[in-house]
Amino acid sequence: MYPLVTLVRILLQSSQFAAWLSLLSLSCLVARAQDDSVGSKHRRVLEDTWEVIELGGSRAGYGRFRETSFKQQGETVRQIDSVTRLRLRRLGQGIEATIRVQMTSNASGEMQNFRTEANLGGAPTVTTGEVNHDRLIITSTQGGRPTSQEIGWGPNDHGFFYERTSLQNKPMVPGETRRFTSLLPIFHQLAETKLTAGKWSETKMLSETRKLLPIQSRTTLHGQQFDATLWMDSDGRILKTDEPTLGQRMIRVSRAEALSAQDAAPPDLIVGTLIPLEGNREGLSASRSATYRVKIKSGTRKSPFPDTLNQTCTPGSEKGSWVLTVAPQRERSTAVDRRAASAGPTAADRQSSRMIQLKDPLIRELAHEVPADATECRLAVELTRKVNTWIEQKDFSAALASAAEVASTRRGDCTEHAVLLAALARARGLPTRVVVGLVYVPAFEAFGYHMWNQIWCDGEWLDFDATRSTGRCGAGHIHIAATPLDDASGLTVFLPVLKVMGGTTIERIEDAGAQAK
Fold first, then answer.
1. Are strands 411-412 and 393-394 parallel, antiparallel or unpaired?
2. What DSSP letter does each residue of 380-426 carry, written as one string?
3. For residue 329, what pLDDT band results from cuts at 50, 70 and 90?
4. Quick one: pLDDT at residue 499?
5. pTM, 2 dp
6. Class in CATH terms, 274-338+348-510
7. How do the domains of the chain map onto residue ranges?
8. Quick check: 142 pLDDT over 90?
């Protein structure tokens, strides 16, 4: 889950990094451009720039943005190719991702179509989009399985890169505010962005100081707000982007400087995103319940932790603080009111999707290797154990592989365990969601980002963690959000998680229950 969340956060900083792409080297980009129907000699290069990407002060990769124009059927067409390559580690294991999007627009800058490719260690996902009057038709294909959706498209809706295009067409001035709606990378959904310009100031770059205009950017998607600071020069070019979570930064540099990032030691995402647990750490994994004081740096007034059958969250005495009580239902006595539970399952919790392929032969075979049991709960337990033993290689080679991929490769981390369990459970008629949140890691005495499942059993949602041989979720599992991981909701489940990344503190303030026997 770590690289997935971090990539989402990086791409939300600036629309110039516009989608997840396959593991392509820079030479692949050049080769594809040369293979286009319009040869390079007939193209006019409008922009060709490079950026270096830093996480927590360490170089994590680089980006390239290239815009050209050419004639096609007598009309002027503009094409943008954006590539971002990241090198990351999780507990020492390396992960590489190259992110690419291609977008075509008319002479006025109105998007006509786009194509993205994405590979985070599993099968590549190809997404295409085409504007057809008042609709944007989007098709995604992974492992040969296409899925489609449509969203409304109006004259005031813009494609990728609009933040960049808007500033270059008309640079902002101090005190100015600008709002627009544009298509977001990864999610392929429209989001609102507000830009507010400050005052010109001397700004440190990598090796020099420039006089730049700071612009506060706030993007809102599905009720979640994400802030960043853009640094613009007098020509409207974004030369630097700062986002406080994990100390993420992007700076425009020369080609040679950007490519030198490949030689730097990549940052470790797990170590960099752990939240140390303060207070009493003893016996947490075996505790029936626990109460925490959580402080969120953003100072949000809305609880980042929903009330569920397993937990309740109330405002703390300080701004941005919350009191969170966690009591797993199979362990608890009376700690959590059942009325706090969310509604029952929907159709999306039962259906196949791009990530959860119920018709895959191996998925169906694995699901039916588990014999029927007396209760749905016992069946869910046995399916969880099946996933735990089937995934033989517990590693971080993929950020979010599909259930069919996991069934075939038998490898992955928490995300792969969760999508495979969702598929097996649904294949046996049990509605299932994936949950994203935090889990206590005794080896680090800290909380890390995690994914597990909720399965509808005997009339209620029960939690199961297939990374554990017992499948049990304990007082160290903190729920942030749940989703059917269908094609409509997609990866928006990770948006609430981003709000607790960076600057969050967790203190155990009470042991509400006795130690489990």
1. parallel
2. HHHHHHHHHHH--EE--S-SS--HHHHHHH-EE-HHHHHHHHHHHHH
3. low
4. 76
5. 0.79
6. alpha beta
7. 2-271, 274-338+348-510
8. no
